[in-house]
């Protein structure tokens, strides 16, 4: 009997062994079969998903290291439609922390979502304080609002501007769509934004550490001096109130290398609240008037006419002429600004007294070909190439244009009938301050990428006049500023400059009461470290640039000298001798 049971036991054990062996063989066969490879591949696919990662946008600093544009974290808050139980409770909780949302619209989106939608965003770009407060309400789960199941939070970066409206006309802004508008943000949008990267990432959050870091966008260091920018904005605002001007601009540039040190416009905006753009600016050209708004600048352009006349050999500084108070050009009578006759004047007196008749005499003596050839070489009517978005080219009419008349040869010589931006005039005038060479204005000092800094070199646009002409004219303009108690003077420093007062065309005619008051100047004359352009629109206290724009220039020049730590002329010259 026992033998019989032993045989049965052995038989069962053999059968079990055979079955086990068969199972093992089958498992090995399945795992090594083509079907197994397909199943494994599909399994791996479900463990990962393709996602697009956007790099952090590059930061923007001023030349002294002040952060002008950076990034901070914000919340995207939404509802998971697969698990939500009480939409009204969720929206009530969201409303309690003042989320910027439309309650009825959000509720409809949750209750009637589009087909295949599993997640509905109820608010985005929510600051961290509000996001954490709402998250705390969910985590507490005290039922005060109801069931908050399905409320989810996604943290992501957003643009931040710690200085708010400071230098807003230069920086521009980034919308919630990650696109840059105006200024640096638009001009360098691709570099700042970096390249989005698609990655196959694990669904399991515990494996998130395996995700590669996406390189950040390029960081930019600007030529702008933060303290000088703030001073320019303050001086401009005070000047508009003092002189009753409607608007204005102050721009500061290093005439030796084209570095823009400050650009101030009256209309500015808090860049953190970019959605207010439409309520602040009527037109895109108003955003940065120094580069985007051409206007008839008036007598500041006389320095270019005189430069052309000296360089072409038409006159010398000592050349005299008899100013009778009027000249006929193209059948029209051109008169001086005061309607007066100034008698015998040399070329320095011509600039000092800002005589229209003298300038028209020079342009007609040169002839249209020579005069407009010089104006073209100075860059009037052309883009400067400044690295800020939205630059306008202005307009310089030439003989042969359908709207050019012979009288334009006279009026263009003193800045009427020609439209230019402050940045164009500064670039043209840089030839006078910089030994005959024009510099290309630029606002980026360096780029930082992958831990390396790449400096932006100075660029020169041409040599419209000789070094001798530039030095001669700069000295003439310095004499003009230093004589007769000009309001543009700064004690201890020799500065060169020129006022401008231009009537504003209204409905095809010039308004006698409305003017643009301007001043361009640079210094110290022997080694220029700054060039300042002042433009006041429609000043009411006085229509004359000599009484409005000139004192603003002096105030701005004095502040620039202090902030750039430029010693007085006698101190500098002592060190130069040693």
Describe this structure in words.
The protein has 578 residues and is α+β, with helices and mostly antiparallel strands. Helices cover 37% and strands 23% of the residues. The protein has 20 helices and 22 strands. A hairpin with a 2-residue loop joins strand 17 (444-449) and strand 18.
Essential attributes:
single chain; 578 residues; alpha+beta; seven-stranded mixed sheet; five-stranded antiparallel sheet; 20 helices; elongated
Total helical elements: 20
What about the largest sheet? 7 strands, mixed
Q: Looking at the structure, what is the overall shape?
A: elongated
In round numbers, the mean pLDDT is 88
Helix content: 25-40%
- CA distance, first residue to last residue: 127 Å
- Give me the Rg, rounded: 35 Å
Ranges with pLDDT <50 over ≥5 residues? none
Strand content: 15-25%
- Would you report the number of β strands? 22
Structural class: alpha+beta
